[in-house]
Amino acid sequence: MSLYWEQNLQVIREQLLMMGSLVERNLGQSARALMERDDTLADLVEEEDSEVDELEKRIDELVITYISTHGPMARDCRFLITASKISSELERIADQATTIARRARDLNRHAPLNSLSNIPVMVEEVQEMLRQSIKAFVDRDTDLALEVIGRDKLVDVEYKETARDVEAAIISNPETTGRELHLLTVAKALERAGDHATNIAEEVFYLYKGQDIRHVKLTSL
Q: What pLDDT, on the 0 to 100 scale, is given for residue 77?
């Protein structure tokens, strides 16, 4: 491969890492907006969402240009398709961060709830899954990708526990229904963000192993 085309692939990698870093920051800021009751952070997340959208479009344009002008070999083609899929998953995580930021602003208009249930734990878990999925991509670490996939079940359990806590809180004090439902929306957004981080890990595994493990139980690998 010529140096020129190798440089083009490197540009795509760099754009993808930039996008991953921005999405990770947005997710963290949206969580802080909720837990610290900070509307400024919530506003910042919404403002930066457009930057994520632009990065996704830029990566797709680079991928399309490379394929149409270079006729890549199978290895490079797999990288290009995976890069496009990962950028799409990152954009969806950013959308979930925006949802959390909006719900945080809604909650900040009212007295704080007695409990945020498992939300802080979910935040830490999903942030770590996102960090690890990107690290797996950078380090070509398929074992780490599998670890991310395995952790998704923990987020699902935490979401279900939060849903039960919200239901119990509403029954105990119906006046908190609106606020509790905002909290449930936050929990669902985190659960979906975890799903997208898992999807990234699956794409990383496919990229470096050439094996599609979507819908495959980890015990069978």
A: 84
Q: Give the Å distances, CA to CA, from 152 to 102, 119, 128.
A: 24, 15, 11
Quote the CA–CA distance of 14 and 138 in Å, as a whole number. 10
Helical segments of 109-219, H only: 119-139, 142-172, 177-209
**How many folded domains does the chain comprise?**
1
Residues, the chain: 221
Contact 190, 147 (CB under 8 A): no
CA 44 to chain centre: 17
Q: Give which of 107, 119, 123, 102 is closest to 45, Cα–Cα.
A: 102
| CATH of residue 83 | 1.20.58.220
Q: Which amino acid is at 197?
A: A
Pick from 1, 2, 20: nearest CA to 138: 20
Q: What is the residue-averaged pLDDT of the chain?
A: 92
Among 144, 118, 116, 119, residue whose Cα is nearest residue 130: 144
**Could you give the C-alpha distances from 111 to 10, 136, 176, 184, 204, in angstroms and in order?**
49, 41, 10, 17, 43
How far apart CA 67 and CA 89 sit, in angstroms, is 21
With a cut of 70, say whether residue 1 has pLDDT above it: no
